[in-house]
Amino acid sequence: xxxxxxxxxxxxxxxxxxxxxxxxxxxxxxxxxxxxxxxxxxxxxxxxxxxxxxxxxxxxxxxxxxxxxxxxxxxxxxxxxxxxxxxxxxxxxxxxxxxxxxxxxxxxxxxxxxxxxxxxxxxxxxxxxxxxxxxxxxxxxxxxxxxxxxxxxxxxxxxxxxxxxxxxxxxxxxxxxxxxxxxxxxxxxxxxxxxxxxxxxxxxxxxxxxxxxxxxxxxxxxxxxxxxxxxxxxxxxxxxxxxxxx
Amino acid sequence: xxxxxxxxxxxxxxxxxxxxxxxxxxxxxxxxxxxxxxxxxxxxxxxxxxxxxxxxx
Lengths: 246, 57
Prior knowledge:
The structure holds 2 protein chains of 2 kinds.
Chain A: H1 2-9, H2 11-43, H3 57-84, H4 87-119, H5 127-148, H6 152-166, H7 169-179, H8 199-231, H9 236-242
Helix pairs in contact in A: 2-8, 3-4, 3-5, 3-6, 3-8, 4-5, 4-8, 5-6, 5-7
Chain B: H1 6-11, H2 16-56
């Protein structure tokens, strides 16, 4: 196991491994999206409190979770990269950020469209919403920092530092509905008690969570292959790919 | 079947704007991400190939 990890820490091996994995993740994501949307719109019943408006949940919660989860994964790779100076870690972090930003934006957007009919407001400055907005700005800030620094290794380090500092925001988002009185509802699912929603709704939501998860993995693997090729273009194996031999 | 007609389905009990506005935005953004990623990969590959030919000359 540990040998395999070290093997795939080498950009060349990972480039080929990622290439083989992408179709599996992409097709799983597509299949799960179809199943998830079918449950969301044709199986899950109308909510007795919110009517049909609650169906936003099937995209809102997966997007919001994924925006936080991707950030944590980026923070993890940033820490690994800073600690052991492993090149691939920084590349992974760079490959994840744009997809994280998309989901952060979607969580805000779908939240606004859900908030308007339920709360009567597109936006309120409560703890959950404000910390989610900060998360979106963190993604944008980190990506701007990378594109502002020409030297890739220096950009890696600066971006990793900012990612790690911003990571403190993720638990704030997660626990905001507990720590403060927020307009945003409490968590639907948590570790200690049974979920407060009908099981078919829960299943539909979890299917969508896995769909966006696999989508995010597929997107970041495609992106990281481009980054690897760019950084490794001086090496023999990358040259072979660029010359069309491999 | 939960919906009496397609009209009812699209209306979403009067919440059509909010529900479809959410899913529509998700669909469009994901489409944009896929297309721009594909295009970006292609451009990177072409740029790297050009650099390779310059270096070997």
